[in-house]
Prior knowledge:
Blueprint (H helix, E strand, L loop, with lengths): L15 E4 L15 H6 L1 H7 L3 E4 L27 H13 L3 E6 L9 H8 L11 E2 L19 E4 L4 E4 L14 H17 L3 E4 L2 H6 L13 H16 L3 E4 L5 H8 L9 E3 L1 H13 L3 H8 L9 E4 L7 E2 L5 H11 L6 E2 L3 E2 L3 H4 L4 H13 L3 E5 L56 H5 L5 H13 L3 H4 L1 E4 L7 E8 L2 E8 L5 E6 L8 E4 L5 E3 L5 E6 L4 E7 L8
Parallel strand pairs: 1-2, 1-14, 2-3, 3-7, 7-8, 8-9, 9-10, 10-14
Antiparallel strand pairs: 4-6, 5-6, 11-13, 12-13, 15-16, 16-17, 17-22, 18-21, 19-20, 19-22
Bound molecules: 1-deoxynojirimycin.
Protein name: Trehalose synthase
Pfam families: Alpha-amylase (PF00128), SupH-like_C (PF22157)
InterPro entries: GH (IPR017853), GH13_cat_dom (IPR006047), Glyco_hydro_b (IPR013780), O16G_dom_2 (IPR045857), SupH-like_C (IPR054049)
Amino acid sequence: MKKTDTADLWWKNAVVYCLDVETFLDWNNDGVGDFAGLAQRIDYLAELGVTCLWLMPFYPTPDRDDGYDITDFYGVDSRLGHHGDLVEVLRMAKDRGMRVIADLVVNHTSDQHPWFKASRSSVTSPYRDFYVWRKDLPTNQPETVFPGQESGVWELDEKTGEYYLHRFYRHQPDLNVENPAVREEIAKIMGFWLELGLSGFRVDAVPFFIEGDPGAVAGDEYGDPHDYLKSLRAFLGRRTGDGILLGEVNLPREEQLTYFGGEAFDELTMQFDFVAMQKFYLSLAREDAAPLAEALASRPRLGQPAQWANFLRNHDELTLDQLSDAERDEVFTAFAPDEDMRVFGRGIIRRLPTMLSGDPRRIRMAYSLLFSMPGTPVLFYGEEIGMGENRDISGREAVRSPMQWTPEPNGGFSNAKPRRLTAPVVDDGYAPRFVNVAEQRHEPGSLLSFIRTLIRTYRNSSEIGWGDFEVLDQPNRAVLAHVVSASEGRMVALHNFGPDPVSLELTIPDTAAGTRLVDLLTTGEVTLSDDGAGRFELGGYGYRWLRVIEPGSRRLY
Length: 557
Ligand code: NOJ
């Protein structure tokens, strides 16, 4: 299929940027970021090249899980503004050609949600079945997601003497998706935000969300959870035409395909590639490209509408749960040597630059890879300037410190007193006086300028998002050489995970005599021999993107 036949599949080469309104920019100086602040920075995001904003939860919340505990699915947290402010952001984004998606967190609610208050009030409440209740504590409990913070997934509710299910914190009771009334509510919630102008959702905790009651008897009326996911996607399609579901599914490869809807590709539009992300860190730690190459090669092949979302870091702990114990230890030793840099026995609470001791060569190589791996890249706010984390903020939330705009106090995030800020600003070698947007913005050699170049080049290289992918054979362990090919053309990317320069001979398959490989991130080119071979130099932790230019090609480079 030609790209032009499916030009409305905008997510195939989008640049997704995740932010929390609360920590982005505080325009009224009360210490909490707000929609008015975000509106001030839409042009910054457009200039960076972002094409799709992902808003973390902005709904009313007691804020015991940073907004992932919602009390009103239709509301806007009053600390951040109101619907009018949000709509203004949507309008401005649309004007710049930028889409907006938001977290859809419907696996659970806050225990302060009116539905749960009603549900727990009595066993005969009309809302009782909005949640999953058990008279007796189930004997074979699934493991909690938050070991050390929760001991199980069932909590006794004193009033009615029954247990409710909570896959996450005990203050986040799971909704009962087996109940048609709950499914109807979820559809209404989606419909509401889509009418306001969202282009889809990042769907929280998909496997838990659709599973229903983990102890339910097979063959009950709920049926196959995937049918439910299909119905949500169909609903989204009917309402929007081209809306997306970007799903959080941290599962092994075999299971991921089922969440795309198998060969039908009628469930999630995109899934984060947790497997490649984890193997990427193993490759970094080992200075060996093989783990990442294998992870990419093991991806199930996707039909045209489906897509992988690549990321190096997100708002949670950097989970390493899909590595073996020995592999996880390797990554811990390399990038989180102290116990307090880790959480839940499986993850790291640091951002990428601190893990890499600030080495600019490695940091740039990592981002060059992010934007050249087949799929759609997702950035977490602050990555573009190399922000560090603030370990004064506990656990996973260490990476959710305020965005650093200027070298001024509070990093230009807010003029409120530091003690009033929603989260403390980084205060070490990565503090705003060292790492900020204002100073990097006009500095051609800055990380921000580099990321902007990567984004521009990615957007000019549609084969990365659309194309087929192949790892090229070559003898150097430290090097990942891959080619992405689409009907528009081909691009070769080289990444060196090791500190030593390398010189490698590569053969690019199926090239006509006289084919050149032209550098896209710098000036330079290599003319291939008639049998498609060429010699390529790469610096320590070096990277190159090269457009395959066959004789007569009109492709820009
Ligand atoms: C996944 C989110 O990414 C995480 O931050 C949150 O705590 C859980 N889901 C529960 O909503």
